[in-house]
């Protein structure tokens, strides 16, 4: 099993970062990659329970993933399981993600811990894969702070 850890700092309050990470109306704005569209989703990370996202890339490829929100500590932590679905909609191996949010002198820090990935190769793919959504999140929050 392999793990990855990513950190980003944002010029918003801890409370605002938690809100953007946890509520569906905000998550759909940054989840996925540029050019992808949401086909269907249930992305409420403000409470425990099931979640899923079904997306299409610009090339028409389907990307579906799902899991369970397992822990929510308002303004601090969101924990959830993660599993990709194959072409037959069968869910693959499960891994675990934790968003940890902390106040900093310049705003708030997000730490993404993605654990129990099945191999180093899969971990490397996920590390690159998180780059898209985190860049979208950064753009979304920087637009907010300019307004």
What does this molecule look like?
The protein contains 3 helices and 7 strands. By secondary structure, the protein is an alpha+beta fold. It has a single domain, classed as START domain (Alpha-D-Glucose-1,6-Bisphosphate, Chain A, domain 4), CATH 3.30.530. The protein has a 7-stranded antiparallel beta sheet. Helix 1 packs across helix 2 (24-30). The radius of gyration is 15 Å and the shape is globular. 18% of the residues are buried. The model has no long low-confidence stretch (mean pLDDT 95). Residues 13-141 form the Activator of Hsp90 ATPase homologue 1/2-like C-terminal domain.
Reconstruct the topology from this structure:
Elements: E1 2-10, H1 14-22, H2 24-30, E2 37-42, E3 49-56, E4 62-73, E5 77-84, E6 95-104, E7 107-117, H3 120-146
Antiparallel strand pairs: 1-7, 2-3, 3-4, 4-5, 5-6, 6-7
Pfam families: AHSA1
Family: Belongs to the AHA1 family.
InterPro entries: ASHA1/2-like_C (IPR013538), START-like_dom_sf (IPR023393)
Low-pLDDT segments = none
CATH topology: Alpha-D-Glucose-1,6-Bisphosphate, Chain A, domain 4
CATH superfamily: START domain
Major β-sheet strand ordering: 1-7-6-5-4-3-2
Secondary-structure class: alpha+beta
Number of helices: 3
Query: For the report, how would you describe the main beta sheet?
Result: 7 strands, antiparallel
User: Care to count the β-strands?
Assistant: 7
| Overall spatial form | globular
Helix fraction?
A: 25-40%
Overall pLDDT confidence:
95
Residues in β-strands, percent: 35-45%
- Secondary-structure element pattern, one letter each: EHHEEEEEEH
Protein name: Activator of Hsp90 ATPase homologue 1/2-like C-terminal domain-containing protein
Family: Belongs to the AHA1 family.
InterPro entries: ASHA1/2-like_C, START-like_dom_sf
Organism: Sulfitobacter mediterraneus
